[in-house]
């Protein structure tokens, strides 16, 4: 099994990529497994945070499986494309907070899987790159859009056009990574952050993510309407009543799943 779902803590799920012989390169089977794992978690209201990690210290994921791609005809590649897109979109569209725990290489599609998460924790061993134009393609798992939204259009153009590799310190400095940690500790740091987030209102988390994602590219007036709808869906929920009561009574909230 190249993908497994673990439960490292209350209300936290971790999708662990484990294809060591290929450094987690995404072939068709791996893409389907990622999509399946995300589909199951999206409908699980007992899960409030999802971590994406690797069982391999050397690599988070080195991107598409080019050995598989090299054997595909044009027709087969065209047929494989929707499978690949669904895998990346399934991570991007998870309705709850997501954290990528990056150790080692996050190249091509691996970088795009990290970019599809809300937060990226990079260990000192992390190396990011989008090398696609060097092998005759372009980033196709959201890289051209997600990287530019994280680091700005011109910096994204620099990284995509040159295909150069970005070490952890630079990734953190330019906003490609949100937090840095020491070698070998990215997954643990992600679990600690996930545990902190998971203690918050599940309704609030889902609606906050919805407002952030849906409003990001809109004109401010439209974005504020998105926020208002998300606020109303939260403010008139049982979570708001419980959260306010817990604050007044000076106790921890008891959220329902």
Low-confidence spans: none
What's the domain count?
A: 2
At CATH level 3, the topology of the largest domain is: 2-enoyl-CoA Hydratase, Chain A, domain 1
Largest sheet: 6 strands, mixed
Radius of gyration from the alpha-carbon trace, in angstroms = 19 Å
Output the strand order for the largest sheet. 1-2-3-5-7-10
Strand content: 15-25%
Using the coordinates above, name the CATH class of the largest domain.
Alpha Beta
- The total strand number stands at 10
Q: H/E order of the elements? A: EEHEEHHEEHEEHHEHEHHHH
CATH superfamily of the largest domain: 2-enoyl-CoA Hydratase, Chain A, domain 1
Question: Mind telling me which CATH architecture of the largest domain this is?
Answer: Alpha-Beta Complex
Mean pLDDT: 96
**Count of separate DSSP helical elements:** 11
Task: Record the SSE blueprint.
Elements: E1 3-9, E2 12-17, H1 28-42, E3 49-54, E4 59-61, H2 66-70, H3 74-92, E5 98-102, E6 105-107, H4 109-115, E7 119-123, E8 127-129, H5 143-151, H6 153-162, E9 166-167, H7 168-174, E10 179-181, H8 186-198, H9 202-215, H10 220-235, H11 238-249
Parallel strand pairs: 2-3, 3-5, 4-6, 5-7, 6-8, 7-10
Antiparallel strand pairs: 1-2, 8-9
Helix pairs in contact: 1-3, 4-5, 5-6, 9-10
